[in-house]
Amino acid sequence: MSQDTKLRKDIKSPTSSRLLVICVDRDNDVGEKAGIITPVVGRDACIEAAQRLALEDPEDADSNSIFYAIRTYEDLVSKGYQTEVVTVAGTKNKGVEADEKIALEIRKVLEKFSANGAVIVSDGEDDESVIPIIQNVLPIVSVQRVVMRVSRTVEYSYAVFGKYLKMLIYDSKYSKFVLGVPGILLLIGGIASVVGYTKEIFAVLISVLGGAFLIRAFDVDRVWSNWAKPTPAGFIRIFTFVAGIILILASIQSGISSLNTSLLAQDKEILTIITDKIVIGQFVAGGLPFLWMGVGSIFGGMLLSNWLSGSLRAISDSLRLIVLGALYPTVAQFTSMLVNDESSFTLIPPLLIGLAITLISATLLFHKYRKKKGGQILTE
Question: How does DSSP classify residue 13?
């Protein structure tokens, strides 16, 4: 025989002459519904198993997969392959136990029929998830997917819907809003129907629902959980935040107290009072110190907490406090301009001074940030 004839023969000869056609039923429908013990080996045995499963549950796609595996087996036999067809199954709960059972059954079959390649037949992504496991036992030559009309789309839709529904119910990140908020609303609604205060309870329901939407929209729960961690930095943030809110609320009272009562004559309309520039100037001037102290308290708490934790955010927090202080003279001069009817040009000096302080501070802090980020040792 010439070398050229031998080469052509080797090219035409199949790389895997002994093939095992494997139909995979990972959730063991063939055992749970039809009572068949796997592995099912041989053409006739697989036909009987598929028929029994189809009689028990005509809508189950696994019976069609078995018939498809039998047809694949017959096609390979007609092409000259030494072939055997088997049906293997996992367990009802799937998971690791199902995969181990499938691998064990394939090893049992290989003890009787020594194959050097496998053809996998499945009807969905779940059955195909065992392909890497089978690959460790026997090389896979081909994967045949049984696609039934409509059923594959329904299967995917059902799988995706079930996955997200399970996540919404059991994942605490989502369940507290998906189940918690409707649960509170239903509970309040039930109490309202018993006590008879339907109108008042309805207002409470709307308030609870609106509050839940705002909390989730602005990540208030996550921000608060980070702020309220039981650490020194967390306690500092809580204290300064509460103190800042109190000071900001006190600025409103201080601004009202600083108003000249003669400007609040009863014969004046409310719109005329709140648009009077002198009233605005006196209100802002009275509340400005407490307002700035409140905002400064919140910014200072953020600075201290980040400084204690060694975060580079302390640098930006420092700049935030500097900008707040640099703006104070400008805002104070603006209120003085409203009350005393001064020229607008009086705003220019404090504005330029505040701008210069901000630019210089930002430059120095940015230089410090770059050195810290580069890992260099700072020399104060």
Answer: S
pLDDT value at position 34?
A: 86
Helix ranges (H only) for 121-171 are 125-128, 131-137, 151-170
Q: What is the DSSP string of 55-74?
A: HH-TT-THHHHHHHHHHHHH
At 86 the pLDDT is 93
Go through the chain and tell me how many residues it has. Answer: 380
**302 closest CA partner among 378, 220, 239:** 239
pTM of the full structure: 0.42
Using a CB cutoff of 8 Å and minimum separation of 24, what contacts does 30-34 make?
A: 30/62, 30/66, 30/87, 30/89, 31/89, 32/92, 33/57, 33/60
Q: Which has the closest alpha carbon to 212: 189, 181, 246, 241?
A: 181
Q: How many helices (H) and strands (E) does the chain have?
A: 17, 5
pLDDT on residue 299: 87
* Exposure letters 125-150 (e unless 16+ CB within 10 A, then b): ebbeebeeebeebbebbeebebeeee
pLDDT along the chain (380 residues), means of 10: 40 63 88 88 92 85 88 90 91 84 90 88 74 87 72 62 73 70 76 73 76 68 62 77 88 83 59 69 85 89 79 78 88 84 83 89 78 46
pLDDT at residue 9 in the model: 40
Q: Is the dihedral of CA 59, 62, 65, 66 positive or negative?
A: negative
Q: Is 301 in contact with 244 (CB distance < 8 Å)?
A: yes
Per-residue b/e over 306-343, b at no fewer than 16 CB within 10 Å? bbeeeeeebbbbbbbbbeeebbbbbbbbbbbbbbeeee
Torsion of Cα atoms, 59 then 65 then 71 then 75, to 10°: 150
Q: What pLDDT shows up at residue 283?
A: 83
Smallest Cα–Cα separation from 328: which of 364, 300, 365, 287? Answer: 287
The pLDDT value recorded for residue 48 is 92
312/299 Cα distance (integer angstroms): 15
Show the tokens assigned to 45. 């045995």
Domain ranges for the chain: 17-156, 171-218, 224-372
- DSSP strand pairing (117-122 vs 140-145): parallel
* pLDDT, position 234: 72
